[in-house]
């Protein structure tokens, strides 16, 4: 009986000592920690940026009228029966600055290649055909409002103000020897624009649009010592279809995707 009680005591002591040890050996591991989502780096605010641009266009110009002085008989001022300019092409370039996501400005220069002019004058006895050619250098300071970007396309409207150097070649009647030397002068000009741009890369932008330009009237040709001159056009209205490229050196042009910082997944941690 003594032996049985002693064995029971030893069994109880063994269970009290071995139980916690076995429980520690078979403890379940801690759950694996899930990797945190990628962190988007906070980029510094950098909206503005300088850009350069190059453009090509096809334009059609309309003269608002032409008059010229005649020495008689009788002396006075006569009007052209009509005067028309054919369409032409131009090349241009400029430099600008994007102020923010919705506003930018630039300075542009466009050279209009020569357009053919055909006109007619008449009096009580004769009808004369008049031909010449006109070219121009247009300088504008422009401002644009970018309305917003949708699927990479940004519509805009704009306006510009500046001057145009108009150069007329000799005005003459191909059927006679009568000629009037062409005039060359600077005139006031303004423009209204609308169009859209599209991101080709994070720096290169395609630009296409329409521009209306009005050039103030001025001297068209000098006097002919035999009968008439000088002559004056009453202004030029021009409609342009334009296409070009802009390259932005810095800042946010709305084309670049946000930069995502790489975050390695943490190693799982197990505890006993």
TrEMBL record:
InterPro entries the UniProt entry points to: Beta-barrel_OMP, OMP/PagP_B-barrel
Keywords: Signal
Residues of the signal peptide: 1-23
UniProt key word Phosphoprotein: no
Domain Outer membrane protein beta-barrel: 46-249
Transmembrane segments: none
Protein name, UniProt field: Porin family protein
